[in-house]
Amino acid sequence: MEIIKSLDKIKDITHSAITIGNFDGVHKGHQVLINKTVKAAEENGIKSVVFTFENHPVNFFKPGTVKNIISNEDKLEVFESMGVDVAVIVPFDQYMTTVDPTTFVEDILVDKLHAKFIIIGHDFSFAKEKMGNSKFLQSVQNKYKFDVEIVEPVMIRDKRISSTFIRGLVSSGRVDEIKEYLGRNYKMSGEVIHSKKLGRTIGFPTANIRFDKAMLSPKIGIYASKVNIEDELYFGATNVGFNPTVNGQSLSIESNIINFDKEIYGKIIEVEFLEKIRDEIKFDDLDGLKKQLTKDVDYVKRNYVCKIK
Question: Which of 18, 38, 81, 206 is most buried, taking the most CB atoms under 10 A from its CB?
């Protein structure tokens, strides 16, 4: 898959089928749009293009307002796994907020990407003051000789699938429900860093990760998790919280990885959240904490396989 990070670098695309959006999470609703785009491209012998942004549009106006539910790297990996030919991932910047719809269509969709098919969600909007939308694209499709397909919302269990809905599941700790709507478990990744190493002194060493603060972290609590270390998968008990028993001051994400004792400081690992086991608790002493951690690990052992080959 070709990755283009600047509008100025778009070239050599003769004809394309395009879908446009932020695609935060690349959930099952997004996947319908992308699959339709890939299919249209394959059937017509042209390029499939996903046009997206490297930052959430809301954060351009109000920085830090919306936390991401997928990293750009993971977003691109999902696009590639779905058979996308070209991913255009550019900054949502001043240009995107001031360009008028006609100029956006002419300069980007027609002159640069040579769109023949445009597949969009029913609530898609673009350009200055969101003046561009599905009705606008339909009104100019004959003039610019492209076809527009508008896709209705995807519903699962009477729930409309959206990034906002999934963000709510993460924030409330309902991670066990996410796979049905996202198509995969919610995950976060980061470099394993040195910490107080208190867990090691009570028999529960943990891998503490330096996570991207722009990512949405699950509700504070203890989670059954799956940990990917250099393409090897393990299960563990992951704490998202402040370690109140030892007067922790900052939010941390740290996993006690079952049946694992290798040195991994400095390595990037991925933590998939499978199920919230309990809330974070402040214990009177370390002995109480140790007893509860034993129960947490035992729960994961009983309900999940310790290691996947």
Answer: 18
Enumerate residues 6+ apart whose C-beta is below 8 A from 172.
219
Torsion-angle region of residue 173: left (phi > 0), alpha (psi -120 to 50) or beta? left
- Neighbouring CB atoms inside 10 A of 97's CB total 14
**Residue-by-residue DSSP string for 187-212:** EEEEEEE----HHHHTT---EEEEE-
User: Which SS3 state, helix, strand or coil, does residue 164 take?
Assistant: helix
| List of the chain residues with pLDDT < 70 | 196-203, 244-249, 305-309
Asked if residue 293 lies in contact with residue 239, where contact means CB atoms within 8 angstroms, the answer is: no
pLDDT (0 to 100) of residue 285: 77
Cα–Cα distance for residue pair 295/309, rounded to 1 Å: 25
Category of 109 on φ-ψ map: left (φ > 0), alpha (ψ -120 to 50) or beta: alpha
The pair of structure tokens assigned to 93 is 């910047």
Residue 292, Ramachandran bin (φ over 0: left; ψ between -120 and 50: alpha; else beta) = alpha
Sequential DSSP letters for 49-106? EEEEESS-HHHHHSTTSS-BSS-HHHHHHHHHHTT-SEEEEE---HHHHH--HHHHII
What one-character DSSP code corresponds to residue 176?
G
Q: Model pTM?
A: 0.91
What is the Cα–Cα distance from 115 to 279, expressed in whole angstroms?
A: 50
* Dihedral sign, Cα of residue 171, residue 173, residue 175, residue 178: negative
Other beta carbons within 10 angstroms of residue 253's beta carbon come to 24
For residues 187 and 25, the answer to whether their CB atoms sit within 8 Å is no
Over the stretch 60-69, which tens digit does the pLDDT of each residue have? 999 989 999 9
